[in-house]
Amino acid sequence: MTATTEINKIINEDNLVYKKTNLLLDNEMHYCPGCTHGVIHKVIAEVIDEMDIQNETIGVSPVGCSVLAYNYIDIDWQEAAHGRAPALATATSRLMPEKYVFTYQGDGDLASIGCAEIIHACNRGENIVVFFVNNAIYGMTGGQMAPTTLEGQVTATTPYGRNTALNGHTMKITEMIALLPGTRYVTRQSAETPAAVRKLKKAVRKAFENTTEKKGLSFIEIVGTCSSGWKLTPTQSNEWMKENMFPFYQLGTLKDE
Predict the structure, then answer these.
(1) Tens-digit pLDDT profile for residues 241-254
(2) Where does the Thiamine pyrophosphate enzyme TPP-binding domain start and stop, copy by copy (predicted)?
């Protein structure tokens, strides 16, 4: 049992049964309206619950909106420095190889500050799962340009749109990771419709099953929204994502060995 789990004790004639509550904690949601993080949390929690691995799962969250995940999913958590979640997850997995270890990271954290950490963890083939939430912006710290910001996209630091000549090309880090020999499963999903959520859940389940089979690193990118950073309503954000991000970040599985 994790420390924060409420335990309902059911006393039978011969034994004592402990009944676990739902993995999603009853805390007030901190995310902005329309944010994709809440849906992703629910999917991850459902898979952990269905696989009955709550007590064997350890999440690693770094800096950014992703750090709030420990407020909502009732498992053991570690907090890493900005971008360093793959390094901490590597140590955790090697020290406790029987555990299901995953990182939960945003695009500014993983693709920019933590680029070296994720590349080398993937190249080594660490037996962990990486959840990479890509909303093409630094969400928590003011909406600055990230490596994943699209060409021409307006952000707090590119008020006239991202200029390739000045700011460099948009990074497709998931495609880069799929080329590394240590990755076994690399996929890009979304969570904007019920059908998309079902596909995402199937991918999450497969990733955790790969951990069971010691197959190496599974990497799931989730293309998401940032209504506050994009300065759009939740409905507009979904439409903008479909019209602009999906053509560039094409959904589907890039690698499955």
Answers:
(1) 999 999 999 999 99
(2) 70-222
Q: How far is CA 4 from CA 25, 173, 200, in A?
A: 9, 35, 27
CA atoms of 250 and 95, how far apart (whole Å): 36
Asked if the structure places residue 66 within a domain, the reply is yes
Q: pLDDT (tens digit, 9 = 90+) per residue, 85-128?
A: 999 999 999 999 999 999 999 999 999 999 999 999 999 999 99
The two three-digit tokens of residue 120, written as one number: 């080398």
pTM: 0.90
Kindly state whether residue 3 falls inside one of the protein's structural domains. no
CATH of the domain at 36: 3.40.50.970
